[in-house]
Amino acid sequence: MTTSTISSPSGFSRSLHSIWEGIKKIPPVYPVFFIIFIVLGLLSPNKYQSMNGAMTFLRTAAPLAVIATGEMMVLALGGFDLSVGAIVTFVVLVSSKLLANDPANALPAILIMLGFGVLIGLVNGLVVSYLRVPSFIATLGMMLLVRGGALYWVGGAPQGYLTENWRAFGRSYFENVPLFGRFPYALIVLLVFGTLAYFLFHRTHYGRQILSIGDNVRASQLSGVRVRLVRIITFVLCSVFAVIGGILLGGFGGVNVTIGEGMEMQAIAACVVGGVLLGGGRGSVPNAIFGAFTLQAIVNLLNLLGLPKPYTDAVQGLIIIAAVAYVGLSTQKKR
Amino acid sequence: MTTATASGNEFRRILRTIHIPPVFYFLILVFLAGGLLDRAFADGQIFSNPAIMLNIIVRSVALGIVAVGQSLVITGASIDLSVAYTISITAVMSSYLMQGKTENVPMAILVVFSIGAFIGLVNGLTVTKLHVNPFIATLGTSLIIKGIINATFSNYTGSVPESFEYFGYGTLGPIPVSILILFLIVLAGWFLLARTKFGFHLYGVGGNSEVARLSGVRTDRVLIGAHILCSMTAILAGLFLVSQMRSGAPWVGPNGVYDLNSIATAVIGGTALAGGKGGVFGTLGGVLIFGVLETVFNQLGVNPYLKTVLQGAIIILAVASYTIRSKKDAA
Amino acid sequence: MTEQTLMSESNPIENLAPLTEVCNITKRFPGVIALNDVSVQFYPGEVHAVVGENGAGKSTLMKIMSGAYIPDSGEIFFDGKKVSFTHPKEAQEAGISIIYQEFNLLPERSVAQNIFLGRESSRFGVIDIGEMNKQAQEVLKEIGVEKMISPTALASTLSVAEQQLVEIAKAISFKAKVLIMDEPTAALTYTEVKLLADLIQRLKSRGMAIIFISHRLIEVFDIAEKITVLKDGQLVQTVQKEDVTPADVVFLMVGRTLDHYFPPLGKPEEFGEVVLRVKDASNQSLNGISFELRKGEVLGVAGLQGSGRTELAQALFGVAPFKSGSMELHGKAIAIKSPFKAIKNKMGFVTEDRKSEGIAPRQPIRDNMLMTVRAIQSLFGIVHKDGIGKSRNLVPMLGKQVDIRTDSFDREAQYLSGGNQQKVVLAKWLASDANIFIFDEPTRGIDVESKASIHDMIRDLTKKGIAVLMISSELPEIVGMSDRILVMWDMQVAGELPAKSSEPEIMLMATGHTIKDREKNTPASGKA
Lengths: 335, 331, 528
Prior knowledge:
Strand content of chain A: under 5%
Number of helices of chain B: 15
CATH architecture of chain B: Orthogonal Bundle
Distance between the termini of chain A: 24 Å
Number of strands of chain B: 2
CATH class of chain B: Mainly Alpha
Structural class of chain B: mainly alpha
Strand order of the largest sheet of chain A: 1-2
Number of strands of chain A: 2
Number of domains of chain B: 1
Helix content of chain B: over 70%
Number of domains of chain A: 1
Shape of chain A: globular
Low-confidence stretches of chain B: 1-6
Mean pLDDT of chain B: 83
Largest interface: A-B, 53 and 48 residues
Order of helices and strands of chain B: HHHHHHHEEHHHHHHHH
Radius of gyration of chain A: 21 Å
Number of helices of chain A: 15
Strand content of chain B: under 5%
Distance between the termini of chain B: 38 Å
Mean pLDDT of chain A: 86
Shape of chain B: globular
Oligomer: heterotrimer
């Protein structure tokens, strides 16, 4: 580009060049999200142009963000976890029964749910690692198991309401917070677990090993990576995050039988929008989170434009296909 | 071991080629287990009742028809997760178009089959030309269909004329029409795979698409064709279901878990997920296993949700029985 | 070229025109000239072997002749006419069929279905299976194997030899006039080779031209009439079998001036105690392996394709562990059952295929370099950009040590050149502080400059007291680098040779001469 013959490119144009290089590296999900958010703000200033509005939005988007984070790690590993939606259903329905309308049961109920999360993830990981069942099938089967199990446990209908304190995580706000005004509990949960996930995925050996397994299992094995261990831990984390997302979602939306249906596809869509490769080997916690935010923003935008909810499913389907096709075609061109 | 020209080798080879899919041994096992449960909990009333036994097959018709289509696609090393919602849209569209009038039936059938062909075409093109992973492609398609259904229909829609119910309830002599149709479809599926150029090429595409391509097989066309056929079987299944229901409802497809179950029965029946192997009769065996389970559970009054749980477990274990021997690491 | 004369009795073949010939064929790939102005004639009714070391250009030549590659310059003639194929199917239909080492059969389909894949005859799309089977039967009969192989047998139920026969039958069904076979006897037992040889004679008498690539000179001399020797992409000579001995051919294959620099070999006083001792170890592939590896030495492992070298490396490293026999590491008996354990015991394995087994292509260079050290550390240890725990500066240090040429260690590994990728893999193992290194083809497909620096690095390792097991199919590398040479053949140890053994000596042992000689002296020979 620079065609100076004698002297080297000037310092100014060089720094411009490196800024441009830096900008090119920003994953598209961030500008896309902000653009959509700005559009929302223009269309509905009351809701979206205030700090209040932003906080409300984040409260709504938090559950998907948490679930997508967990899903992202499994995708980076090169697999799929399709049981996360059923786990959400399980959490909400079974908690409604365990709580027995008594707030004192909240903590034990949450702990029991987390225990189930670990168990489900463990089984997923073991089935894939030792029985060599492709994760797609294994977690699809698990989805049936968990959803059926949930419905069986509660006899087909919610057994009670979700107590106030349990729902607080997904629904309530900290009031009178300086600068923010109201700050949703859900956002705190997202920040806590998002930071944990960030730390594990980007800052520990474990995270690097997820990526190398997703990228090249054989090379990882030959380099001494304990593939099975890493895989099992990842499925456990994904399920646990799904449990947390379920608690947030249940808190936000209350109990209902169909809650969680389709969540696995939304989580995958969020990751794909955030730029996670479906074959494994790439991933990022912030990208997954913002992918979830973007998806939520799109849903809100479509609602604002008057599109009825069912169409949002269709749009999501289109987005997934488009995103995967886009990534697939662009890597093909590179070859 | 020395190579021998002995006729012993020849005999063994012939034996190997007429082979009964292992699934039928499982079927017998399940049957016996069901019989035992019957004796233990229901005084043997289930298995001694011919109507119930026949019902096993009738119950299996919808799943059986779709499973045949799914077998085709899986043989080509692809998969179709959109069948459940395809069934749903068939049910509501056909019911809506028929409006209870017999004269609308042919038109309705034409329309839904066109829809099916279109869905199959989209699936096939997305997989072959856009190179999207078939899981994702058909899952995406299913979401789109779901959205369209939910946007336009939320409850029972339209109605099915009584004449059409012949499909679902009628009998030809002692045999229910539905079983005949299932039989025909299974036969057609078998014929397609075992005796036609298309079928042979499909096995090639699934077994090793590169080898097939080098041998001159038009791999893209074959796979698209398989996807179209699969969607059409979903349409047929949807028509059958709606003929039994009098009116189409949007939850028909997902409720019956036709996507997962069709895959599972195909795999249990010996159609390898990796493609290139298997046949329709094995799938039928898998379908019958599910049918027996379903009937036994229903008759014994087992909680339907427990049934779902068991189905999930069986799917995992059944696929595991094939994959556990593979040396390749799964993702 | 197109003279048509009658067959004369004294030299029947030479009086006919060649059935196919290649003239002045040149083919280049990035960084290497695979074939350089090669011309060979192949006559009908003649069995013609093409021999040469790995990388001599044999496969490339065959691929050009069968339509898989297009030459950069030169011409191909078939049946007197100039041809140029753009797709293997064109060559197949013209009458040139090739059978690769990895067969192109669909395992779950029958023999007949495989033979006629893609050109099944049908009416309205329906195939007459009986007819197809009958036609397959006829083709099988043409090559005389109709009693052995049934048209309805599944390909996966056939032995390797039988699968090969099916491939040959397929070629015959294409009315092939030229049959090219790549290492046809590599996977066959002694008896099966005999059957194949008989079949080849039958085909030859039908006027077909049979061309085959082989490393096994004994079989070449048994089966072929003409031998073409290629070396470094050039034609050395085409000879009549009667005019040469195997040793002559070997000399033609490898005789060269040593123009490549190798670091000086180790001196005996520099070699320490035995660090690895393997006694009579076997697994599902290998048989009775015994050898010793000493501190500070380079033990070269030579052998032909399929002789068991990579299997040996995999067994030592726990990928396909030994099932019987014994292994001692630093004097202590040990069983290595996984790479993790091998690495913990300070072994390193620089694999042959770095693309599929050595690097994670989409991860940054630095993460690739640190993969091993991180793998054996605690799972949740904190990631440091350039190192681990106490050694924070590994990446730049190692990068300099192995001389990786890159502008940034953040680049994804897939964008590096082959040579640099190999250096990344090497760096990965250096980081792990291994004291026994297994190298499998350390410089395969690498440019000359990087080759030299890798060789220097290997020698530097030994100076530090590290023991090196180096597998290589490049004889100059074996001769130039090994303090001792272990020769493999047919999944066993054929023997050991001292440093500075000549290439022909090694090649002779590698082609099975010593074991065959041993076997000839014992009764009841014939491996099964």
